[in-house]
Amino acid sequence: MTSLLEQPGYDEEKLQMVAEQLLCREDQAGLLLSLMGQPQQYCYPSIFIYGHQASGKSHVMHVMLKELELPHAIISCVECVSSSLLFELVLFSFFGSEASSLLPRSPSLSDFVRIYRQQCLQAPATQTRYIVMEKAELLRDADANLLPALLRLQELDNVSVILLSEISWDKFRPNTGCFEPLLLHFPDYSKGDLHQILSQDSHPKYSDDFYSSYINILLGVFYTVCRDLRELRHLVRHTHTHTVKETDTHKLWRNIEPHLKKAMQTVYLREVSSVQWEQMQQMEEKEAGALRGLSAHTHVELPYYSKFLLVAAYLASYNPARTDRRFFLKHHGKIKKTNFLKKNEKTSNHLLGPKPFPLDRLLAIFYSVVDSRVAPTASIFSQISSLVTLQLLTQVSHDDQLDAPKYKCAVSLDFICAISRTVNFEIVKYLYDFL
Amino acid sequence: MSTTSVSKGCFVFKPNAKKKRSLTAEDYFTGCSGRAENSKVRFGICQNLWDRIKSETEALQDELNRNVLDSLLDLARKCSSTHRSSDWASKMRASEIPTAALVLGVNVPDHDMTFQSLSELLQQSVTPHVASVQANECATLKHLMKKVLEKLTGAVVDEEDDDEEETEQMSAQLHRSAHCSFSTLCDWYNTKTRKSSSGTPGKKRSSPSKDEPPRPPVVIIFKDLEAFNPKVLQNFILICSLYIERLPLMFIFGIATSPSTVQHMLPHSVSSLLCIELFQSLSCTQHLATVIDKLILTPQFPFKLNAKVMQVLISIFLYHDFSVRNFIKGVQLALLEHFHSRPLSVLCCEKKEAVQNLLQLSHQDLERVRQLPSFKRYVEELDRQEQVSLSSDDGHLKDVCLKLIKKLHKYHKNYYPVLRCLHTLTCSLPRYPLGKQIRELHLICLESNVWESEDYQSALKLLKMLAKDELISLLQKCAEILQAVKSKKMKRAFVQLEELLDKFKQLDTAAETVSSVEEIVTSPVRNLQKKTDLFQLQKTLLEMNESRRSKRLSPFEVLRNEALEFIEGLVKNHLFPPESQTLYEVCYYSSSATVRRHLNATPRTSVQAALSSPYYYIQNDKLKAEDGSVSNAAPDICIAYKLHLECGRLINLYDWLEAYSTVVSAAEGKDPDSEDFGKVDEVKHARFIRAVSELEFLGFIKSTKQKTDHVARLTWGGC
Ligand SMILES: Nc1ncnc2c1ncn2[C@@H]1O[C@H](COP(=O)(O)OP(=O)(O)O)[C@@H](O)[C@H]1O
Ligand SMILES: [Mg+2]
């Protein structure tokens, strides 16, 4: 196994350590190592590593750079809200805080290059420096010149940039052209790989064999729905409490399976937090049923008029405006049902989703559905904006537009039915789709 | 003013702050109502009452939230301890960020207090590092990071002397590095924890592994989760999860709607980084119920609201905002208005104080007493001589008032316990004839004699149908209520009720003998089942009815009727509406219109009122016009408004100008026959344009491209 990780210039023992930690990624690690060459040799200017979530991209880079003690900067692009933070972090990790403090207030790329050069003269690289950019796909939203510059940063000094991404390079390439990085794909772990990796961190209490068969059972249940290593770890952690009771490998399967199935509906979906799950395990079977997941709580208490405003908004969003006369005018006699129902309109409005409506229409419907006379007070209007902040309505027009704001209703049919039931309003009778 | 400067220039002099004494609340209070010499006393009482109400409600809120807050604190404590353990489990733990989802309900204005006490408690007992952020200050990720960092690092107070310098340095550094990152926060956190642990010099670093510095969690509170931009929140959580190893972070999400919003806002990849626990706070209706219970349904506070005002406040709560804070604000408004506008409110205080204040009343105030409707009613009942002496002799009036005030206090003392008793008896009856909540019953009693209402009658009927043990347990609860009251009448009532309950118990022991009697009574029903003939059936049914009517009541029924009569007696003696009490005006605030106007403003109606009848606002007699029309001399905008009401959807600007000019010329008193009457001169033109643009600003018209020289009306309806 370790034969793959052979490279002159590195400590044998350290390479051994790396290999131990990179189960099932030996190929990729070996390839990377050969690309990197000896510490003082130049590496390829930029390497683009892509693969699905939890395919070990970050893990491989972290382990290699840390264990081999190479100078590096690991930067998450999520954190770099602006490029100046990126520059600062790079300078800081290579040259210390004095260098990063040289940056002007809002530094441009050329500021960065200038200071980097300057620092390189004082402290030239004895070993290749590595900049690892996690979640590199976010670089596409950054300044247009940043990505091309990073790809050619080696022109400054002995430095290599390694981009980690879940998206393939084709979706990255700037249309102005740029230096092409070396592409490296991390394939998903196979079931066997997952088994091997998960078995690695066996619980001290069990024999390796027992633990391994436990992992096998777990993968049998979950592999079809989830192949994400991190999620599987999460599940292992939360189901192992049951294995503690068992010692016999054969009995294990029978006893553990129902628990795994239950875990699939709860912990895996994070319906129930890990702590609550632990509590559930300790509780009696019957009580455990009482603990409801997050999505079970959908009920919302609202003030009376807010309920009607929401109902009115729902009607305005899902009924065509021309049908308002039919629904809300007392004497709509003349409009016949036949010409009112357009034949060609077969698609349900509920399939099309909510449509925006102006404030006027909302209020007009509101005043006709609410059963008492309501003064147009300030609090009626402020309730509309409260509903917007509660995300039950969404404002479609821009915030600044005071003139005729437009809204959309953002609640589901079930939700609005529950709400209208509490105020004795039969909403289905007023919905065009259910006519 | 002179300066010591040699150069010439412009100098800014700040006004000397000490010279201008700003007006205190008291000055406003006494100044405006003027004259009345007792306004100072009233202000004192009012202030005192408000302070009591405020502290009471705050204590109440803390009390109500205690459970939730305690469990939140536990979570925070736990999360600081688990971060250190290094066993297998914690190694396996995907580094989740502990998160509390705190569901608070849609009454967002109330949340501030909860968060306030939450962060205070956290700072006192768990960690000094608490930052709470609000969505409106964090529109972007950058802002959010900045806010969190500022709040965490800026709020820290060091034990050392040079803390000010340090925080300044800190903030300087933050500002210098334009973008704050979490790594700065980590550094800051490390220096903080290290410093606080090395602060105790007694412990030497003999065992470095055990003597690890305490790592209090860093708590970030998102006050209004729904209002945050989901993208910003997601990225922020992603960043935090990168640092969770180095920084013991913890989140608290304030959720107004339902916990499922977390799932709507965060994709699985992000929510899997969190370990969410759910906390449900008390519902706002329950909160209101306790507030009403402690604040309003008690003789403790002499200040009272009448039925209409209560109704307004409660309906604002139920229909509009669900906010307990606003409800209390409403009570405060009523309180201020009462003490400010009613000179006789000096008597609205504790009995002793009221007696004292009564003796101080001036002649003028006593005249006011004589004018009170309730007092007039009282006087009418008296004989001639007494009437005369009351209207002429101030001393005698004071004596009588003393008695009346004492009587009013006694009335309140008995009213609330009896109200509670009646509520306990009726609150669980089917279909709640007298309301489910005690406030509903209170409103009924405030408005009229409750025993005359139909609902009361049906409630009594339902009570008569209760099973024995149900009735007994209800009566026992009533007895408990009465027992706690320190009033002679209630004490006596308690004794009576106890006697009744004893009799019920004796009934139990005699039950065996009764059961045999019942056997005989119920037997016809059994016979009934055997008969199939219709005529026979009817006959037996009739017989049964008759026998029941004539039948003597069972001992339980007798006793039950006795108990209910006793309750009815209490109700009739103590639950009459306050309006029946003489001098009730002193304690009861009754101007519901004022409260409504202040709390539930109708901006559009007021604008329209101002435009169509400017007299109400300007109070200029010249503008007073009969039959609601606008006088010629009204402000330009009123005239323009009035004229535009006569137009259709599109208004011809030139016609409008002509009409305006004619009206204004008439106001100037020009001779209608003269040649330049109604002629548009430059000044009129300018005034008209200004009026039109003001109307546009107020949203009555807008420019349109449909027709040249026209504007569109935005409101319906004409004059
Ligand atoms: N070969 C491996 N051996 C052990 N653990 C691994 C391996 N690959 C990935 N992991 C673990 O799986 C998790 C996810 O891996 P990560 O490198 O973050 O994935 P990616 O960056 O591709 O999304 C990490 O906690 C990591 O420690
Ligand atoms: Mg990664």
From TrEMBL, chain A:
Q: Which UniProt keywords apply?
A: ATP-binding, DNA replication, Nucleotide-binding, Nucleus
| Coiled-coil region(s) | none
Q: What is its main location?
A: nucleus
Residue ranges of every copy of the Orc1-like AAA ATPase domain listed in the record: 21-162
A single GO cellular-component term on record: nuclear origin of replication recognition complex
Keyword Ligase recorded: no
The keyword Nucleotide-binding is annotated on this UniProt entry: yes
- Origin recognition complex subunit 5 C-terminal domain ranges (all copies): 302-431
Annotated GO molecular function terms are: ATP binding; DNA replication origin binding
An example of a Gene Ontology BP annotation on this entry? DNA replication initiation
Recorded superkingdom = Eukaryota
Instruction: State the compartments where it is located.
Output: Nucleus
A Pfam family it matches: AAA_16
Q: How does it assemble?
A: Component of ORC, a complex composed of at least 6 subunits: ORC1, ORC2, ORC3, ORC4, ORC5 and ORC6. ORC is regulated in a cell-cycle dependent manner. It is sequentially assembled at the exit from anaphase of mitosis and disassembled as cells enter S phase.
The record's similarity note reads: Belongs to the ORC5 family.
Q: What's its job?
A: Component of the origin recognition complex (ORC) that binds origins of replication. DNA-binding is ATP-dependent. The specific DNA sequences that define origins of replication have not been identified yet. ORC is required to assemble the pre-replication complex necessary to initiate DNA replication.
Per its record, how is this protein called by name?
Origin recognition complex subunit 5
From TrEMBL, chain B:
What region holds the Origin recognition complex subunit 3 N-terminal domain?
A: 1-347
Q: Which CDD domains match?
A: Orc3
Q: Which residues form the Origin recognition complex subunit 3 winged helix C-terminal domain?
A: 604-716
Tell me a Gene Ontology molecular-function term this record carries.
Answer: DNA replication origin binding
Record keyword Phosphoprotein present: yes
The keyword Zinc is annotated on this UniProt entry: no
User: Where does it live in the cell?
Assistant: Nucleus
Q: Where is this region: Disordered?
A: 193-215
Provide this UniProt record's keywords sorted from A to Z: DNA replication, DNA-binding, Nucleus, Phosphoprotein
Can you name a GO cellular component term? Answer: nuclear pre-replicative complex
Name a single GO biological process: DNA replication initiation
> What's one Pfam family here?
ORC3_N
Residue span(s) of domain Origin recognition complex subunit 3 insertion: 360-591
Primary subcellular site in the record, as a coarse category: nucleus
Q: What InterPro entries does the record point to?
A: ORC3, ORC3_ins, ORC3_N, ORC_WH_C
Name the source's superkingdom: Eukaryota
Chain's role: Component of the origin recognition complex (ORC) that binds origins of replication. DNA-binding is ATP-dependent. The specific DNA sequences that define origins of replication have not been identified yet. ORC is required to assemble the pre-replication complex necessary to initiate DNA replication. Binds histone H3 and H4 trimethylation marks H3K9me3, H3K27me3 and H4K20me3.
The annotated subunit structure for this chain is: Component of ORC, a complex composed of at least 6 subunits: ORC1, ORC2, ORC3, ORC4, ORC5 and ORC6. ORC is regulated in a cell-cycle dependent manner. It is sequentially assembled at the exit from anaphase of mitosis and disassembled as cells enter S phase.
- Please give the family membership noted in the entry: Belongs to the ORC3 family.
What name does this protein carry? Answer: Origin recognition complex subunit 3
